[in-house]
Automatic annotation (TrEMBL):
Residues 303-356 form the DprA winged helix domain. This is DNA processing protein DprA. Residues 5-63 form the Smf/DprA SAM domain. Signal peptide: none annotated. GO terms for biological process: DNA-mediated transformation. Residues 80-283 form the Smf/DprA SLOG domain. It holds the Pfam family WHD_DprA. Belongs to the DprA/Smf family.
Length: 365
């Protein structure tokens, strides 16, 4: 009865988090909200239809998808009244009273950092997000993001082993986009899928900005990697600022439209970061132990033995260059350069970008 009541609250049309919260404060637990007298509900700002729904048995309001959720061994609920409800999420103005979760519930009470950015990420941007996620995950932070294309997916991939939380804008029984179905199953193994939406809730544009407040609300801070000026990631950053969380931004090329979002945030007070240590140093004494320098890897100071490759490496940077520009800088013919670029790309030190351009891939931060 109790879990059915929680789900029934979610099914009452227009009964958002704030009114649900008011009901829970009045009646202490979800089941007590139902079949109470209509007079006890009059001063809570509820509509006549909402009051009428609360006179019913919760079992009459829930749907077959809700029953499947309750009966599945692979799905769970985190209620506002549960002791492991995420403490940071409790602090936001409109926390969801109920979270639908799949995966490792223990992630809910571990320190989290969000990494978000453009759905149309460049290869360099995706590699940067993945590298930051991997390095920050190794320090003990759980990486949160929104399972979207581009930067979100790269952040999740970087933290698959250490743990990552994907906050969905759909019901947690539906994966959107469908191309991330395999990634979602990988996340469940070491992390968590989270949604405030009831089962079988499909993707709607209005749900994703609401999803963003949970991403930032769960996290100590938000790191933005590549975002256009009108990007949804900037909504997450704004919400994080309103929630009193740290906001970090990775700068980029002044010529890239995807740098405008991070650069605007930096002008507005976000912390410019170039390494994982830059993030950790801002998170306060609680993470002092996490700020120890990570071991230096071969990629950090990689210098090719082949003199031609070394010359190409020195001539390149993280902004895309055409083969002609690289050849001119190196004094090589395009034929000579082509073989060198292929070898370096296979080795994982550079990437081909649209328009026949090439750039270095960043080492792990």
């Amino acid at each position: 009865m109790s879990d059915a009541a929680w789900l029934a609250l979610c099914r009452i049309n227009g009964l958002g988090p704030q009114r649900q919260q008011a009901l829970l404060e009045r009646f202490s637990h979800a089941a007590a909200c139902f079949q109470t007298g209509a007079g006890l509900l009059q001063d809570l700002g509820l509509s006549a239809k909402q009051i009428q729904a609360l006179q019913k048995d919760p079992e009459d309001l829930i749907r077959p998808a809700d029953r499947r959720w309750l009966n599945s061994p692979d799905t769970d609920l985190c209620r506002w009244t549960d002791p492991d409800y995420p403490p940071l999420l409790r602090q936001i103005p409109d926390p969801p009273p109920l979270l639908f979760i799949r995966g490792q519930r223990s992630c809910l009470n571990q320190p989290m950092l969000a990494i978000v950015g453009s759905r149309s990420a460049t290869a360099v941007g995706a590699a940067t997000a993945e590298a930051f996620a991997r390095s920050l995950g190794e320090t003990g932070l759980i990486i949160t993001s929104g399972l979207a294309l581009g930067i979100d997916a790269a952040a999740h991939r970087g933290a698959l082993v250490s743990g990552t939380v994907a906050v969905l804008g759909t019901g947690a029984d539906l994966i959107y986009p469908r191309t991330h179905l395999q990634l979602a199953h990988q996340i469940i193994e070491h992390g968590l899928l989270v949604s405030e939406q009831a089962p079988e809730t499909g993707p709607h544009s209005g749900l994703f900005p609401r999803r963003n407040r949970i991403i930032s609300g769960l996290s100590l801070g938000v790191l933005i990697v590549e975002a256009a000026e009108n990007s949804g990631s900037l909504i997450t950053a704004r919400l994080a600022m309103e929630q009193g969380r740290e906001v970090f931004a990775v700068p980029g090329s002044i010529h890239s439209p995807l740098s405008r979002g991070p650069h605007r945030l930096i002008r507005d007070g976000a912390k410019l970061v170039e390494s994982a240590e830059d993030v950790l140093s801002e998170l306060g004494p609680l993470f002092g132990a996490l700020c120890q320098a990570r071991p230096v890897t071969a990629a950090d100071h990689w210098q090719p033995d082949d003199p031609h490759q070394a010359k190409v490496w020195a001539a390149m940077n993280f902004d895309p260059l055409t083969a002609e520009e690289i050849a001119t800088r190196c004094g090589l013919t395009l034929g000579e350069l082509s073989a060198i670029l292929l070898e370096m790309e296979i080795s994982g030190y550079l990437t081909a970008s649209p328009g026949g351009r090439f750039c270095r891939l960043p080492p792990a931060p």
